[in-house]
């Protein structure tokens, strides 16, 4: 890290750049919908189902999604070739793929494809899936897309030897809709669409990134600043990074205790950074997948300092509290209040690991309050939980091959009366029904899928059977305030 940047961070009391100009999967801001997309994508690749398409506007988090996906694939032992220079076309693109798989190109397309086929067969015999990931795929020519179609023809009797992930801007979808490459398009098994964040999610995202950077409540985006930020960025993660990076310069000379980012500073930062929303004629899709990821590929922490006065926050500080051990009447719901810095300190301890952040009801909050690895915050009667998953949802998908974890899941469900089968380590219809029963009984969305919140509660019950019902939860001091 350069000295000027180090000094800037030290002055603000930060340990890392909160809004970097590059994809940052280490400060992964997780949402249930984004996790679901990641799990399903990994499942498609793990089971050799076909190829995956990832699309989103510039700055919505495609590269960070890919980095997180690569972490998952690497943990699964898959062999991955990553191509990010899509201006390579035809034979040059094929040569780049071979080199990334550790093969020496021969300079002859037919010989190169044969060499790749031999390599893929060897990996298939070793039960190791191979994945080709291409970023900025909207730059691929029809010639290159035809090459990819040929590569998808490399197969055994029933399985594709090479799994492909294409990531690009929305025009990639338009290109793939052309009739001349319909054979390639017909093999898409999963389409992930990344969209901008809504206003509430954008504010939580900023709070999260400041916390994991070490702000510990010393730097805060108030409600007026959050509204101005969403208006200026339209929920686009890259523009959020640009604006917030400039805002931090505006706080450089502000004394501690006055480092609150309000609407005035946000608007000035947006004007000086040139980060303005790009309005499209087509209606915006919802935030279902949401680009709640740590990325921004725009200008980094360089430029002119903003010296405008920093307005004080008008909104009250949120509470970091222990959830009620039972579900009392409204008059009896006083929780143990704590400073906002506890939430930030707790999130800091999760830094460097994929972190789930989602709203939970008071019942679930009461059951997980005894865990030391979960951050809880109560604000205006709403509970937010953050945790680094002890087990991952993709481990329990059908055909995932994690018999030991599935068997443990079955054991916990059996002990609590939701599963009535044998502990065979198989994830099938019976397990799906058991999870749905467990979710319905515990106030979770009864999808039958092992989402992060369900797995967190199951892991809690497995470690502490006494946590099975809300009235058995023990009241503790506020999370993250030790």
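Sequence proposed for the structure above (482 residues):
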């Amino acid at each position: 890290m350069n000295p000027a940047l180090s000094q800037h961070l030290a002055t603000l009391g930060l340990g890392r750049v909160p809004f970097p100009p590059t994809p940052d999967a280490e400060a992964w801001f997780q949402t249930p919908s984004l996790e679901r997309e990641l799990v399903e994508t990994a499942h498609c690749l793990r089971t050799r189902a076909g190829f995956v398409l990832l699309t989103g506007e510039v700055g919505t988090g495609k590269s960070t999604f890919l980095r997180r996906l690569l972490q998952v694939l690497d943990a699964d032992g898959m062999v991955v070739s990553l191509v990010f220079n899509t201006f390579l076309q035809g034979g040059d693109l094929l040569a780049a793929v071979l080199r990334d798989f550790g093969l020496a190109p021969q300079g002859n397309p037919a010989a190169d494809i044969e060499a790749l086929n031999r390599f893929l067969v060897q990996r298939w015999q070793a039960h190791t899936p191979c994945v080709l990931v291409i970023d900025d795929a909207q730059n691929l020519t029809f010639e290159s897309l035809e090459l990819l179609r040929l590569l998808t023809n490399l197969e055994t009797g029933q399985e594709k030897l090479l799994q492909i992930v294409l990531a690009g801007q929305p025009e990639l979808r338009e290109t793939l809709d052309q009739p001349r490459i319909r054979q390639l398009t017909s093999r898409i098994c999963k389409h992930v669409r990344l969209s901008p964040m809504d206003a509430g999610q954008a504010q939580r995202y900023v709070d999260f990134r400041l916390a994991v950077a070490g702000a510990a409540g010393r730097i805060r985006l108030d409600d007026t600043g959050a509204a101005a930020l969403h208006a200026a960025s339209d929920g686009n993660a890259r523009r959020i990074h640009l604006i917030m990076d400039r805002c931090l310069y505006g706080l450089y000379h502000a004394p501690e205790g006055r480092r609150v980012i309000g609407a005035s500073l946000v608007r000035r930062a947006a004007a000086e950074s040139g980060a303005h929303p790009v309005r499209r004629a087509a209606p915006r899709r919802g935030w279902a997948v949401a680009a709640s990821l740590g990325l921004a590929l725009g200008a980094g922490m360089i430029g002119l300092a903003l010296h405008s006065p920093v307005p004080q926050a008008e909104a009250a500080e949120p509470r970091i509290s222990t959830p009620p051990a039972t579900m009392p009447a409204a008059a009896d719901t006083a929780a143990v209040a704590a400073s906002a810095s506890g939430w930030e300190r707790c999130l800091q301890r999760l830094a460097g690991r994929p972190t789930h952040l989602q709203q939970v009801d008071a019942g679930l909050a009461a059951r997980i309050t005894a865990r030391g690895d979960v951050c809880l915050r109560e604000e205006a009667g709403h509970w937010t939980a953050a945790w680094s998953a002890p087990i991952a949802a993709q481990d329990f998908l059908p055909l995932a091959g994690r018999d030991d974890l599935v068997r443990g899941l079955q054991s916990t469900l059996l002990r609590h009366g939701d599963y009535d089968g044998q502990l065979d380590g198989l994830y099938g219809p019976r397990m799906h029904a058991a999870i749905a029963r467990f979710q319905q009984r515990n106030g979770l969305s009864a999808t039958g899928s092992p989402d992060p919140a369900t797995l967190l509660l199951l892991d809690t019950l497995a470690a502490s059977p006494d946590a099975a019902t809300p009235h058995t939860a023990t009241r503790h001091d506020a999370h993250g305030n030790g």
